[in-house]
Each structure stands twice: as structure tokens, then as C-alpha cells.
Amino acid sequence: MFIFNIILLFACSALERTPAKYVNPFIGTANGGNTFPGATVPFGMVTIGPHTETDSCRSGYLSDRKYCYGFGHVHLSGTGCPELGNVVLVPHSGPLQTDTSLYKSTFVNQIAVPGYYRTDLETFNIKAEMTATPHCSISKYTFSENNGDANIVVDASHRFSWNRERDGFARIVSASEIEGWSKSGNFCNSESTQKVYFVAQFSKPAVEYGLWEQNLISQSTELRGANVGGFFRFRTHHKKPVYVKVGISYVSVQNARLNLNIELPDWEFDSVRKSAFSAWNGELSKILVTGGSEQKTIFYTGLYHCMMHPNIFSDVNGEYPAMGSGKKLCSSGYKRYTVFSLWDTYRTLHPLLTLVYPERQIDMVKSMVDMYRESGWLPKWEINASESYVMVGDPAIPVITDTFLKGVNQFDIHLAYEAMKKSALQLSNNPLRPGISSYLRYGYIPIDDAENGRVWGPVSTTLEYNYADWCLAQLAKYLDVIRAS
Fold this sequence. Notes:
Blueprint: E1 49-50, E2 67-68, E3 71-72, E4 88-93, H1 100-103, E5 105-113, E6 116-121, E7 126-132, E8 136-143, E9 150-155, E10 168-174, E11 177-185, E12 193-202, E13 208-213, E14 216-218, E15 222-225, E16 228-234, E17 242-249, H2 253-263, H3 269-284, H4 293-306, E18 311-312, E19 319-321, E20 328-330, E21 337-338, E22 340-341, H5 342-345, H6 349-356, H7 358-375, E23 381-383, E24 386-387, H8 396-405, H9 413-425, H10 436-442, H11 447-451, H12 458-484
Antiparallel strand pairs: 1-3, 2-5, 4-9, 5-6, 6-7, 7-8, 8-17, 9-16, 10-11, 10-15, 11-12, 12-17, 13-14, 13-16, 18-21, 19-20, 22-23, 23-24
């Protein structure tokens, strides 16, 4: 039983014959599921959707909340720690507001299908709609003609975290464009941070525009701080919508603009929405099942959630920030991925991707091996080119081994094997395997290692190392056979 009403939109009879029609993006948004219900494409960088919390929400959305505080552009889905939520658009009407307590709105009439989200902001009588491409979003805000001035605020410093500082930068480019970046990071209280770069363009020039800081209008054309952003005020007539396009990059503002120019060269909202739905239907239709509507909803929504993470990290030109250093690199012949929650995903998600989406999985493994090339270690719980070291074990090893032994092997297995041996054998300064000295000495990790804070659960960690080492042994046997032949 859901504690809210779900409205699903199917615009034409053709959708009735597609697997994507069974997806319910609101499943998992209650009772600690922390799933993301907004608009995205399969494995997309951009995930634009509503914020019903302002601080430590995981996905930006909790189904039992009363207010909407705007629409962010990058989110996690299904995680246990808050992160991202950056680059927030806040439509409202009447006097300009930059304070969350004044621009929040009750919201009704939610609709969500793969690649599309809409809701009515009841307080301001605004219909908000949004859809996405891999690196960009386009939003459609229809203001009531009786509400006077139409305002869209761009919050450049908002993010989700556990009591960590905010930081952002915004620069006015013109009456219809703003650019900047927003700080993210500190996942599960790690120390690493990154920047989310953005370019936002409006479908018509604003009659008034500028920057704000600490809820006060500024005369500057660029600002940096913990509470900064831009505002754009429009005159609207006859319920004609205002569109906003946003390009996102983890490399630079220039790349965010490039992503925008390549993926969203025009303002055809409905065309983008249809393309996003088609992309989802194409991926979901790789598995066809029989059964009733309820069974198909459970299955296809689960499969839909499997394609949220890992997600694309490289830009349209292949550039991405290197693991650990943030140095600008370019992927060669593959798409770079991020958000490797490997302890959560090595058992089921990656084996599924290997079987059904091998072209995605091979790029993910290439991403993992290149992370070793760049930082000296395989990922454990990587997010946006930084390692959080959350959870236990050495989960990259079973992912790479399973992928290779199932025949999805178009990657540098010898470099991967080198990386796996390093984490399994290096005794000192080994961030992937805390307690490894005791493990190799005794064959298990004693409680003393847990008591001094080095190990999260000695029994669980021992078992995880056991399995990773077994996988490594199977790969070693196979590679010995290959060498012998």
C-alpha cells in the first residue's frame, strides 16, 4: 500500500504495448528505499527531479513530505548516505524569493514515467514538467496568467550532505543564460569533494535578472559562496511556458555548454521526452516477461532501478576527471562510468549487466581498470572520481572475474589481474583491505582489528576477503591455462 496517490501518464495507445509503461518510478520512495522518481535516461549523468527535503535526503525525494523546494539535476538513488542534489531550479510567482522557507510549495498531481516527471506547484499555481538526455535536462514551467511575475531561481550552492559546508559559483552570461559550479562530495562523511559544473539557458530573455547571496540581491555579475545563485524574472501571458535547458559536466563549464549544444540544440521538449521514453523502452525490452500488470510493474520497475547506477561520467567529448587527482583525461573508445557501490552490486547487479547489457558492463569494467591506472587502486565505493572506502571486502575482484570468465573480455585483463593481486597481497598502506596483515597471518581477522577502528566487522570482512580471493584464484587458473596454450 502506498501512502500517496500515483498518477501515471500514457499519452497514446502505442505505449500500452511497451515494457516501459509498467514502470512506476514512485516505488521505493517510501520507508527508507531512497529511490529517485524524477526524469533521467538509462545510466544518465543527469537526474532531474523534485526536492522534498533541503539537507540530508538521499535521493532528494521522500514520498510523505508536504513541500517541494525545487528541482535538482544530479542525484543518487537507493543509497544510505546523502550526496549530490546540486544545481536546483526553483520556479515561483509573485515577489522574488531566494529563501527556501518562502519559495517552498505544496505539490499535487504528480506524474512519473521513464524519462519524464511533472507536478503542480499548488502554492504558486505552476505546472512543472521535466525530461532529460544523458548530460542535460529541459524543463517546462507553465505559470498561471493571473500570478503576475514569473520567477525562476537557480541555486548554485545547494547540496545534500551530513552537516558539511556548501560552496558554489554563479556568473551571469546574459538575460537568458547563467553558468557556474556547485560543490559536491563528502559521501558518508568522506573528505573528498568535487565540482558539478552547469550552464542554464532560458527560452526567452528575462525582464529582470541578476545574482543573489544570503537571500539578498547582489549587483555583482559573478559570486561565490555558501548561499549564492541567480534569478530570472519573466512576463508570461496566456499560460505560455518558460523553458529551461541545463547542461551538466564534472569537468568544466565549457564542457557543460558543449554537452548542452550537442544534446539539446533546440527547444523541442516533447521530442526529448519521447526520445527518453524510447531509450528506456529499448533497454527494458531486452527482457520480456509474461504475467499480470502487477507482476510486470514489480519486474520492470526493478529493472528500471538497475539502470540508475553506475551512471555515465564522461562528457560528449569523452573527457572526465581522473580518479583521485581530478586531472582532466579523455576516455578512449568507451564511456567512463561512476558510482560503483560495489559491495551492494557485485552479487547481482553486475552479473545481470554482464548477461543482458554486456556493452554497458564492458565500459564499466574498463572504467574500473582505468581507476587503478590513475590512482593505483581498484574502486571499492567510488563516486565521482573519489573513493569513500565505505562497506567491507574487496568487491571489484568478483565483478571483474565474473565479467571476464563469462566471455565479456574486451579489456586489459593483465592490468586488471595486476590490480587485483596488489589489493590481495600488499601488507602496508592498503586502503582496500584493512586488516590484511592479520588476515594473511592467521587466515582470519581477529576482533582486535575491529576494536582499533580499522575493520568494519571482522567476521564479515574475513568472509568477503575469502570470496574475493577465491574469485582471484579462479581467474589465475584460467590465465595459467591461457599462457600454457
